[in-house]
What we know:
Layout: E1 4-8, H1 12-23, E2 27-31, H2 40-43, E3 47-48, H3 58-82, E4 93-96, H4 101-110, E5 133-135, E6 139-140, H5 143-156, E7 160-162, E8 169-173, E9 176-182, E10 185-187, E11 191-194, H6 200-204, E12 214-224, E13 233-236, E14 239-243, E15 248-252, H7 266-279, E16 287-298, E17 305-308, E18 315-319, H8 325-341
Parallel strand pairs: 1-2, 1-11, 2-7, 4-13, 11-18
Antiparallel strand pairs: 3-6, 4-5, 8-9, 9-10, 12-15, 12-16, 13-14, 14-15, 17-18
Helix pairs in contact: 1-5, 1-8, 3-5, 3-8
Amino acid sequence: MSTQVLIIGAGVIGLTSAYDLAQAGCRVTLIDRGPAGSESTWAGAGILSPLLPWDYDPAVNELARRGSLLWPKWAKQLKQSSGIDPEYISSGMLALDLPDAAAARHWCDRHAWAASTPPAHLASLLARPDQAIWLPEVGQLRNPRLAQALVQSLTSMGVSIKTDCPAIEWLTADHRISGVRTPQGVMQADIYVLAAGAWSQALLGDQAAALTIAPVRGQILLFKTEPGHLPCIVYKNGRYLVPRADGHILAGSTMEQAGFDKHTTAQARQELLAFAQDVLPRLNESKIVRQWAGLRPGSPDNLPTIARHPKLTNLYANTGHFRYGVTMAPASAEILTSLVTGSTHSIEAMPYRWPTESPNN
């Protein structure tokens, strides 16, 4: 009889976990406090790379790189099974105004991370070519379409997705989860997976142990231009522009400690607008279509937890991916599936183990 899995959280991490577990033969149900893919999954820009990989822990880069390598195949499969194109594009990323571009290129060379001097067709974006790097293999996905494709594909696979169905209480017995109380009744499974993003630590309460995840608000502006105005992703001083195939351009993103407040602010609008127009002056003539905010699942060092609970033997976490949930999602799903089913995986899971100490200790 196949293993029954209940996943709490239907963002990109929960959805990809369900997809991979279902393909491995598990019977999967997802529940979420709201619509599927409606929180940070919907709000993110879909850049498939750490923004500046040389600034991150090797475990972050390994998981992100594995995820970015998997996404072209996943995107193709999702498009075929759902009829919805998640718009995977290998657009490349231009990183500007780096404090030491030579050192960054040396890091890329040592770690086999594709990088070069910027090509000639990007000259109009360069104020200081000597402070820039071209990362040609960086791709992107269109987050809302990705979530729709995942939901449709999972539905066709027989995965049950229960939205507007928050987890209210964990029921435990003999060091195991015996059920999850929801407004739709108690839901039971063999295995439980916590994939609730910014809400994960709060949902676990006293059972969180040393798991530390806090919401970090990010705001984005959306512009509408003619297609082709921006040929690639552009990063500069912590912010980025992301061009979509239909001419929309995203400008992001802030990093704010605001609790669970998702309101947008005039200050962020002004700052992001100034950044966008500085990088691409023709945006002075473009319409701002929308401003929004999302809550990232902030974790120490941007390192997610993909592991079994230290005491509750049938509870697993796949959470805390901070800025790179979409990037890391398929690789994280691989690790989770291997832990649940006992199969092999391509990345060592130890760096993503359940933390034993809080970062303040």
